[in-house]
Amino acid sequence: MPSLQVRFDRAPRFILLLLSIIAELMLAPFFAGNQADLGIALGFSGLVMLAALWASGAQRTAVLLFVPAVAAQVVAAQSGSAALQVVALTLRVAFFAYATGAIMWRTLRSSEVTIDTIAGAACAYTLLAVVWAGMYVLLEFLHPGSFNVPASWQVGANGSRNPALMYFSFATLTTVGYGDITPTWPGSGGLAAAEAVVGQLYLAITIARLVGLHTSQRR
């Protein structure tokens, strides 16, 4: 009877990406509070982007999106310009959206269930939260007050809401819904609802696909 195949031709890349996302989620907020530790916070963000580039296969399109996104993020952090921050956020969202699509496509088109396939599916799921977090932050820049974020969640002298919105994105994707951070107008509410729907559809479709493939292998 065929069992789940253990093959690590691409799994280490996916595992690195998962670990880097978790590290940024847990540790980056501790270093986002002041200018002195800004480089460490940027390092976590850069690690996630580099791991996503590697996991997606480092194709030409991915590289063309990666390089300007990283450059814009560094320049925006140093200059503090609101316009540059919007540009950097837009490029970051575009890069992660492409990486998510590339990993998802590679996973869903697989003809068998392996450790590689499962790791890729997990990466695509977590990247969905990263993409939506970027859109939330971008929306907050363009339409301030789109989210009700408690003062205790705002870090740094300028009261950055980025870590709070990353947390909100993961809570929304997993439909945990603690209610401590909430949308305040229809635009942000619609974006949050779309993330919850996409997250559940992704889980349903991916699990059905993997179970179907595994059942076929056993037969």
The rounded distance between the terminal residues' Cα atoms is 8 Å
What is the H-and-E element order?
HHHHHEHEH
Q: Enumerate the strands of the largest sheet in spatial order, edge to edge or round the barrel.
A: 1-2
C-alpha geometry: globular
What's the total number of strands?
Answer: 2
Spatial extent as radius of gyration: 18 Å
User: What structural category arises from helix and sheet content?
Assistant: mainly alpha
* Structure annotation, total helices: 7
Mean pLDDT: 84
Residue share in helices? over 70%
Estimate what percentage of residues fall within beta strands.
Answer: under 5%
| Biggest sheet character | 2 strands, antiparallel
Low-confidence stretches: 1-8
Question: What does the secondary structure layout of this molecule look like, with pairings?
Answer:
Elements: H1 11-27, H2 38-55, H3 60-79, H4 82-108, H5 115-142, E1 147-148, H6 162-173, E2 182-183, H7 186-218
Antiparallel strand pairs: 1-2
Helix pairs in contact: 1-2, 1-5, 2-3, 2-4, 3-4, 4-5, 5-6, 5-7
Model description:
With 219 residues, this protein is an all-alpha fold. The chain is built from 7 helices and 2 strands; from the N terminus they run αααααβαβα. It has helices at 11-27, 38-55, 60-79, 82-108, 115-142, 162-173, 186-218, and strands spanning 147-148, 182-183. Strands 1-2 form a two-stranded antiparallel sheet. Helix 1 runs parallel beside helix 5 (115-142) and helix 2 (38-55) runs antiparallel to helix 3 (60-79). The chain is globular, with a radius of gyration of 18 Å. The chain starts with 10 loop residues before the first helix and ends with a helix.
